[in-house]
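Before a colleague's protein record goes any further, I have to sign it off. What it holds is a sequence and that sequence's fold in token form. Would you go through it and say whether the fold makes sense for this chain? The record follows directly below this note.
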Amino acid sequence: SLWREQMGFKLNSLCEETNLTKSTKTVFSKLCDHTSLKPNGLYQCFPSVKTVARKTGLSTRTVERAIKLLRENSYISIEKMRCKQGGYPYNLYTINVEKLGLKDQTD
């Protein structure tokens, strides 16, 4: 949707202003691309490490390190999720929009 594209652009612009390394910014930017505002009011996404690596051209290990840095620096939080019907577990990433200076979806 247009709103999602605009929000992704806004999050990516804010991401570029951080003091993160180039590869960490690249991973953060890709997470922001996948993010949407959920009914709970949070900006969340759940791409796999493999998907992020493929879309950024980075190795899976580099993506894992970047995600760890993002979590340690409070740019994202990670919740381990389990599929109800026995599917593969996955990580649910929540973008800390306050850390980026974005207060809520009306900004």
